[in-house]
Amino acid sequence: LGNSESASEEFEKAVGWFPDHNAATVDLCNMLLDYYCQKTPVSEPAAESSTIETPKSKPLLAKLPTRESAQTDAPKNSKPHRTVEESENLLSRLAARGRAYGLLSMLTKSGRGWDDSDAWFALARAYEESGEEEKAKEALWWVVELEETRPVRDWSCAGGF
Known about the structure:
Blueprint: H1 4-17, H2 22-36, H3 67-71, H4 84-109, H5 117-129, H6 133-148
Helix pairs in contact: 1-2, 2-4, 2-5, 4-5, 5-6
């Protein structure tokens, strides 16, 4: 409660050590989406304090519109003036949303996360924040189907899997 910087560092470590860990990935993505929505401030950890190197990758969702651009009716030739700090904040928020989408998309397409309703719910939230309401609806209906067919016990209890 209130220590999002420490929590995000620990989730980053968990995802770095075990990328297929559903709960850590989903919780990290929820924190990233909270940061995008400006619900919680998250400062970036210092580079020298990180013990895990993550590979550099190009943005996965360059085509996604921002919520602000989808809701504004201003003509395209009149651009609002932003300070450098505001621009950096916006870019950081967009990167957080894009990273959350990428992680959740990979998780829900993998063998470990295709039936994780929490991951699909978070992915629906990422779609919604990106302005893709139809994809969000599809993901939410998949959550409903998964919850309706959820077994009392996990399949790993049956043995041999």
